Known about the structure:
The chain is α/β, with parallel strands linked by helices. Helices cover 42% and strands 17% of the residues. Strands 18, 19, 20, 21, 22, 25, 26 and 27 form an eight-stranded antiparallel beta sheet that branches. Strands 1, 2, 3, 4, 8, 13 and 14 form a seven-stranded parallel beta sheet that branches. A four-stranded antiparallel beta sheet has the order 6-5-7-9, with helices on one face. The longest helix has 31 residues, at 344-374. The site of 5'-O-[(L-methionyl)-sulphamoyl]adenosine has 21 residues, from strand 2, helix 1, helix 7 and strand 13.
Amino acid sequence: xxxxxxxxxxxxxxxxxxxxxxxxxxxxxxxxxxxxxxxxxxxxxxxxxxxxxxxxxxxxxxxxxxxxxxxxxxxxxxxxxxxxxxxxxxxxxxxxxxxxxxxxxxxxxxxxxxxxxxxxxxxxxxxxxxxxxxxxxxxxxxxxxxxxxxxxxxxxxxxxxxxxxxxxxxxxxxxxxxxxxxxxxxxxxxxxxxxxxxxxxxxxxxxxxxxxxxxxxxxxxxxxxxxxxxxxxxxxxxxxxxxxxxxxxxxxxxxxxxxxxxxxxxxxxxxxxxxxxxxxxxxxxxxxxxxxxxxxxxxxxxxxxxxxxxxxxxxxxxxxxxxxxxxxxxxxxxxxxxxxxxxxxxxxxxxxxxxxxxxxxxxxxxxxxxxxxxxxxxxxxxxxxxxxxxxxxxxxxxxxxxxxxxxxxxxxxxxxxxxxxxxxxxxxxxxxxxxxxxxxxxxxxxxxxxxxxxxxxxxxxxxxxxxxxxxxxxxxxxxxxxxxxxxxxxxxxxxxxxxxxxxxxxxxxxxxxxxxxxxxxxxxxxxxxxxxxxxxxxxxxxxxxxxxxxxxxxxxxxxxxxxxxxxxxxxxxxxxxxxxxxxxxxxxxxxxxxxxxxxxxxxxxxxxxxxxxxxxxxxxxxxxxxxxxxxxxxxxxxxxxxxxxxxxxxxxxxxxxxxxxxxxxxxxxxxxxxxxxxxxxxxxxxxxxxxxxxxxxxxxxxxxxxxxxxxxxxxxxxxxxxxxxxxxxxxxxxxxxxxxxxxxxxxxxxxxxxxxx
Length: 757
Ligand code: MSP
């Protein structure tokens, strides 16, 4: 298979297509914004560019999420897909196509690809028994109980008749391809990982499922649906028209395929660098020219993701500081390919330092002075002095450095070098002080200096603005107007980046009125963003706590237009429905294998009957608000073995139930309490607050294995002291034969602080 040399006439660029089980957050926005910046630059270089994004809507994960929300999978997918698209529009992202894997064009193309692979002898029927991670839609090697190596969640055992793809036949071919195309994947860490994965041996891959139906049927054998990753990866070609009989679409496919760049998050490089090229090789379709992986956006030290409950929404930043501020921060702060931390403080610091006080202030000074001293009409600069030649040379250096750095995806470096020019222009202005005439300088000489300095500084600003346009499109558009250059979008259409050189501003150009670019963010900006986020998670919690399981009042996620209502409704219902799911957890093997020695029978603190009635499965050990305090650690209250309470607990009313505030929390810290061999000290995060809980589970759980787990706690239990430490809440767990505990958990993603009712 060939990997033709890059074609400068056209550029096809894709983002991953996003799962619709969660609303978009800053992590998703990051990949899409990077693509948007690349696409804008390519277009402004006169390259015919196609930028594709979309949503990945099939698979067991989506089917389950929809069921939990009481929606059909398509209704559910339509709502969340609409949110992604709506957000991209709100942020002004210039995608050319948005594909949904539920569209006919995609189904048709994916079936064509499957048939092609089968016809060419690369797909055969077999059976699979093994582990599967529903969250990552990934087959995992290992015995039952194996956790997913990617996300750490419990895998499920599946046993099915499947179609298999002969991945093993591509081991050598892939390695040869990587060798021949050293720039195919990046960064280097991704390349190394992928190569070592392939070198360690490839097994044939199951590419169909029969145990659920939310997917694209296998052509000719409709009880199978196509494996969601084969379905998803195919989007890159089906969106162009692969599989279509329409000549126009066929021509588009021919024109834009192979893709120049698949931009992805680093966690999905195996799918893009191993499976996807192998499918394409097998089908006889050319391979993409490159796959580039961005690192993770971290928040509160973890990968920003819904399941960790540490997300920030792009809308929040957009509302307070604008979308350019977000773009600048993401591209400047995080060296592409590496993980990077996001925080509101760092964002505001960058915004004020580089944008408000840097570029924004520079533009404002120059445009204002141009109006003040020259009525807004650019004067002749006159002959250069050494100061002007120095600035011109800096600008020439910046032009030479910016493009190659940007095109190598070193956005941070490209911006850094451009901001050197911002600082130099600022320094040049200050050094020449056109606003101040020394008493010994004749008037005419001063006007000549003003003209020279302002025209030179304005020219530097023009260059900075042209180069930074793909990253700060809205602000660059404003500056372009102020410099009297008209609409920057028109300039971009005319490939203005092909010829950025010193001297573009012509004397006589009429500047537009100054307009604020980046108003300085005051101290409350961080607080405002924080409040918007808190409000958002609060509304999620409220939705969760006010919707009854059978309630019809939760509203529907009927479409992208009702984005917010849809979100809350979905999350609220999902949260409630997860209670039902909790029974499944009790019914089957516990989600996390404890692997502990369940020794002596342990007496635990009294179960809150309400929780038992609400949550416990009748045939298994009751789910307890439990084993928080072993008998020996307690200061007050009667001991009662769990077994005694089931099934004879007296009936209670709904009023009793609602008194107990059960919430989802995540364990941040778990450590043994000195001199108390049964107690663990936990710090848990409820999303809206963090607190300390003491739990008598030290004999059953290794503290380090608990960190990161999502659990259920009684959040409104009065605080008590044990061993001099305050405990603020209780954990929920099933108590097995002999009293050993199994902590309650969730099979699905669930936000921190969500209430169980
Ligand atoms: N549906 C698959 C991709 C199929 S592509 C054929 C999927 N979807 S996802 O919704 O989980 O989105 C994954 C992508 O979102 C990541 O690969 C990455 O591009 C982006 N990100 C999501 N969270 C992120 C961070 N916290 N940080 C950086 N990027 C993140 O996987």
